[in-house]
Amino acid sequence: MASDCEPALNQAESRNPTLERYLGALREAKNDSEQFAALLLVTKAVKAGDIDAKTRRRIFDAVGFTFPNRLLTTKEAPDGCPDHVLRALGVALLACFCSDPELAAHPQVLNKIPILTTFLTARGDPDDAARRSMVDDTYQCLTAVAGTPRGPRHLIAGGTVSALCQAYLGHGYGFDQALALLVGLLAAAETQCWKEAEPDLLAVLRGLSEDFQKAEDASKFELCQLLPLFLPPTTVPSECLRDLQAGLARILGSKLSSWQRNPALKLAARLAHACGSDWIPAGSSGSKFLALLVNLACVEVRLALEETGTEVKEDVVTACYALMELGIQECTRCEQSLLKEPQKVQLVSIMKEAIGAVIHYLQQVGPEKQKEPFVFASVRILGAWLAEETSSLRKEVCQLLPFLVRYAKTLYEEAEEANDLSQQVATLAISPTTPGPTWPGDALRLLLPGWCHLTVEDGPREILIKEGAPSLLCKYFLQQWELTSPGHDTSVLPDSVEIGLQTCCHIFLNLVVTAPGLIKRDACFTSLMNTLMASLPSLVQQQGRLLLAANVATLGLLMARLLSTSPALQGTPASRGFFAAAILFLSQSHVARATPGSDQAVLALSPDYEGVWADLQELWFLGMQAFTGCVPLLPWLAPAALRSRWPQELLQLLGSVSPNSVKPEMVAAYQGVLVELARANRLCREAMRLQAGEETASHYRMAALEQCLAEP
Predict the structure, then answer these.
(1) Residue 294 vs residues 303, 321, 346, 635: alpha-carbon distances, Å
(2) 3-state DSSP assignment of residue 662
(3) pLDDT in tens, 219-233
(4) What is the pLDDT of residue 5?
(5) CA torsion sign, 637 to 639 to 644 to 646?
(6) Cα–Cα distance for residue pair 316/60, rounded to 1 Å
(7) Taken in order 80, 83, 85, 90, is the CA torsion positive or negative?
(8) What is the DSSP letter of 369?
(9) CA distances from 658 to 652, 698, 700, 709 (A)
(10) By C-alpha distance, which of 240, 300, 311 is closest to 274?
(11) How confident is the model at residue 52 (pLDDT cuts 50, 70, 90)?
């Protein structure tokens, strides 16, 4: 065995005989003084030339951790020896060891992190060569640790982030290395970094932003690449936003090459994604800057996607998508928009051309590319456009609809991959870290608003039905509904889940009105109806979910008219529970409210309905109309309504308020329900008469109700 080692040993000695001589002296040292002298010689030899991994391991075997540990922690140096020389020697040895990834992850190295970080901000002569060497070695150790699988976590826990921030802000020797290591840690563990050192990181952001705003040389383009990493997951300080916007305005307002412009567009996209338009100042300068951003983004998208045979810079184009989305939001904002009407008209025209290029690109996407992040990003921006505008590019959109349905179905069936794609898009578009709010994790949710508009139109609706979109939407709704069912913590659900459910309801409402035959013949709608019936009773009892309850109740009532012959609606417990909950939703919208100085109360919205009535009232009126239509189709419904006392309480409410306070459309809605209940059931008529129904009908000029109650 010794013979096997001799060639390697002889080879090492021939490469660096001086080092071998010093290692021999180190092994034969009899006391601390001799060991210290030998270590100095070993360190000198190591720095004088490159060594391979085997030699580095032999040094470690000869030295170990014990003596370097003592050097790093000793407080008493030999006479005539500055105390930092011992520490510098200890750090130099650790730096040598850390060149070996296995040793860099060793507990004896990891537990030195708190000590090493103190060297980054230690005061001393900046021209002292030994101190400079110690700083370099410290950064070498920390960088090596950061390169190990669990290294970033240990560095963050050891206070490294704050120390690096202070070292950078102090602009002492090695501050550029501090910034480079900070960038690496933020890229690896952004959330943990901000959790541990938010004040220090914000201080660095302020410094970088100020430098960016003042920079007149090429450094401003380098800062464009760094700054996205230093934007916090929470609120960005206003002074930083001002500096960043001013710096970007100067860059993008100049004639630039692509390598100069692209980092600026990506920084602007990161700000848009994190802050919306809040970072752009109001007034003429802000509107011109926003128009410039969107214009540049659209030009970049067209150049990239319209020219065939050119390589698409996907990260840049995806960043441009984020800027286009900001443009869409501002062009559709009615109040406090940064843009004036002429600017909006111009930008919509420019964005239309860019969206045309996106559609052209998606038409070329084959099955093998459907799981690529850039395709997901392209579908996202198209979905944002269709949510607001479906009249333009109608022919192109219709041609693309089959692809969009297949694409959404593919990702729906592989939901985990869809979530991963969403994260990859965020990475592709902005930075190596998660930007701002989480992007929706599935393609279908991106397309729902646009499909809601398209299902109103005959041509697009027929294509969606032919491609199986209704069945896919039913499955998607049922899957998403499971997330809100008992047993799931709805408090942690993103708002996008509930918004998605509401939008699905709107699409189904469109189909109920425009394609009733589809509702009757497609089995998926029977499953949907069963879910609506089972869910509404608990939903109407939940605080803060009134708008979703309104969608579910109204959709269920409209579908019940079409599916009235279904066994599930023939007075089953589920159907009775659903209609009882629907009556609760419809009956609790208005109350009698006393007015000062008047003997009569007025009809007013109940407190729970006031805040959402603007979004709710159309659904409420549609629900009243749908309930009215269900009464003659379901013989058991009128007696059930009578048992709930809704007709009696409705007449009592109308009798207690001034008729002048009840709007004509409310009178019509109430009369519709009361008339159908009275016609359907003799006991209902008798109960209404006992509640002064004829007198109330006369006061409100409800001729149909008055006539119905006059009958036996």
Answers:
(1) 14, 9, 11, 59
(2) coil
(3) 999 999 999 999 998
(4) 37
(5) positive
(6) 47
(7) positive
(8) G
(9) 12, 13, 10, 22
(10) 240
(11) low
* Residues 6 or more apart in contact with residue 259 via CB below 8 angstroms: 221
Cβ pair 686, 710 in contact under 8 A = no
Which ranges constitute the DSSP H helices of 541-680?
A: 546-562, 573-587, 607-610, 613-630, 637-644, 646-656, 664-680
Pair of tokens at residue 485: 């069912």
**The tokens 């070993």 sit on which residue?**
42
Count CA within 13 A, CB hemisphere, residue 211.
17
Nearest to 187 by CA among 435, 533, 502, 392: 435
Exposure of 56 in the CB half-sphere (CA atoms within 13 A) = 19
The DSSP code for 18 is H
- The distance between the two most distant Cα atoms of the chain, rounded to a whole number of Å, is 121
For residue range 511-534, list pLDDT tens digits in order.
Answer: 999 999 999 999 999 999 999 999
Least confident of 74-83, 245-254, 638-647: 74-83
Percent of the chain beyond pLDDT 70?
A: 84
Cβ neighbours of residue 134 under 8 Å, at least 6 residues apart? 84, 87, 88, 91, 92, 119
Contact call for residues 179 and 168 (beta carbons, < 8 A): yes
Distances (CA, A) of 626 to 60, 149, 205, 319, 620: 83, 61, 57, 46, 10
- The answer to whether 412 and 472 are in contact (CB under 8 A) is yes
Give the Cα separation of 534 and 538 in Å (integer): 8
Rounded to the nearest 5 percent, the helix, strand and coil shares of the chain are 75, 0, 25
Instruction: Please say whether the beta carbons of 182 and 161 come within 8 A.
Output: yes
Share the mean pLDDT of the chain.
Answer: 87
Residue 612 corresponds to which tokens in the numbers above? 């959402």
Higher-confidence residue of 602 and 600: namely: 602
Q: Which amino acid is at 169?
A: L
**How many residues belong to the chain?**
712
pLDDT at 311: 80
Query: Does residue 460 carry a pLDDT above 80?
Result: yes
Q: Label the pairing between strands 590-593 and 602-605.
A: antiparallel
- The tokens for 621 are 């009126």
**Which ranges constitute the DSSP H helices of 16-128?**
17-28, 32-48, 53-63, 66-73, 83-98, 101-104, 107-110, 113-120
| Backbone angles phi and psi of 217, in degrees to 5 | -115, -165
Residue 105 φ/ψ region, left for φ over 0, alpha for ψ in the -120 to 50 degree band, beta for the rest: alpha
User: Which tokens belong to 49?
Assistant: 């030339």
Structure tokens that stand for 375 in this block: 């395709």
Burial (Cβ within 10 Å: 0-12, 13-18, ≥19) of residue 456: middle
Q: Which amino acid is at 388?
A: E
pTM value?
Answer: 0.84
Strand partners, 657: 601
Rounded to 5 degrees, φ, ψ at 593 are -125, 130
pLDDT at 22: 67
Q: Rounded CA gap, 153 and 140, in Å?
A: 17
C-beta contacts of 666-673 below 8 A and 24+ residues apart: 666/590, 666/603, 667/700, 667/701, 667/702, 669/621, 669/624, 669/625, 670/624, 670/702, 671/697, 671/700, 671/702, 671/704, 671/705, 672/624, 672/625, 672/628, 673/624, 673/627, 673/628, 673/631, 673/647
For residue 288, give every residue at least 6 positions away whose Cβ sits within 8 Å of its Cβ, in sequence order, or none.
Answer: none
Angle, CA 357 vertex, CA 351 and CA 358 arms, to 5°: 90
Cα gap 285→302, rounded to integer Å: 26
